């Protein structure tokens, strides 16, 4: 259960121990209230909101996001989720037969499927680096990963923090190594902003997508796509709409193409300045640090209970506010429901490849008592059911 003063800032049910912030996040109460104000303004005067006020609101929102990510506001456009952003890039990426895209075997399923589809269509290769567990150092990971790049590698696509394993990957070092070899980089930062520092200029990344509705705590369906200016002309929108051959073109074709794609409620995008201001007001890096500490201090206990070996060193290089361990179960979906139905614990049990991972997420409202409840539940489930095997 939510057990500290931060609980009042979230709308989550008080009877649920919420250890799955990583999946869909949870919106801050004051940000959600601002969201509803925008929605009310939209319904009170839809024409003016969409055609007059909305574009200015979007500009202000992009300015706040650009400052937060240390990039130009005109180099980001809003999308509903990172999978949407990946499809924008994958559909337009100029792949030819024999070209290669280098990735890992830990990528998010939706993104993995999108790239496989477009690679097959072009006769290109989707090359997966099999991440060797346990990891040892960032330097070793980068060396092994980059050894799979060839003269045919046109793009590196890799997660900032992986979904199923929660690992933080050394994307800054990979971007640097890729640049030295003339390879474009695309980072899936769904779990990045709000959990770890994201400085897009310092990173030197070519393309980056992030979810604001996860660790930045905005309403669902608010994410962004960043493309370095020199590459923006390469990518068409998924939907051709008013921005193509715009009647009143702006200073940026990138914005014209991707910002307005038909009637929809874009209120969620507009709340990002409120979320950024909240994090700044509450010195969010100190919250992140406290969450990391709680995550890392409990990692060994989770591994011990599940008879699992750590897949990476438990330090800031690889572990932020997510931690996972392999769990032996033949019924992951049933086990997930069992945690919730019997203990009111919301935690993912995720198959990935030939493994299943139990992953906890820690946000400001979590406390040691939440993880203690999880550990007690695991002990009871092992004793009373066959859902968790030794």
Question: Describe it for me?
Answer:
- With 390 residues, the chain is an alpha/beta fold.
- It folds into two domains: 5-19 and 283-384, Aspartate Aminotransferase, domain 1 (Alpha-Beta Complex), CATH 3.90.1150.10; 32-277, Aspartate Aminotransferase, domain 2 (3-Layer(aba) Sandwich), CATH 3.40.640.10.
- 42% of the residues lie in helices and 15% in strands.
- The protein is built from 15 helices and twelve strands.
- It has helices spanning 21-24, 29-44, 46-69, 82-92, 109-122, 138-146, 171-180, 200-203, 253-259, 267-270, 272-281, 284-297, 299-305, 332-343, 368-384, and strands spanning 17-18, 76-79, 100-104, 125-129, 153-159, 184-189, 207-211, 223-227, 322-326, 345-346, 349-352, 355-361.
- The strands form three sheets. It has a seven-stranded mixed sheet with strand order 2-8-7-6-5-3-4, sandwiched between helices. It has a three-stranded antiparallel sheet with strand order 9-12-11. The chain has a two-stranded parallel ribbon with strand order 1-10.
- Strand 6, helix 8 and strand 7 (207-211) form a beta-alpha-beta unit.
- Helix 2 (29-44) runs antiparallel to helix 3 and helix 6 (138-146) runs parallel beside helix 7.
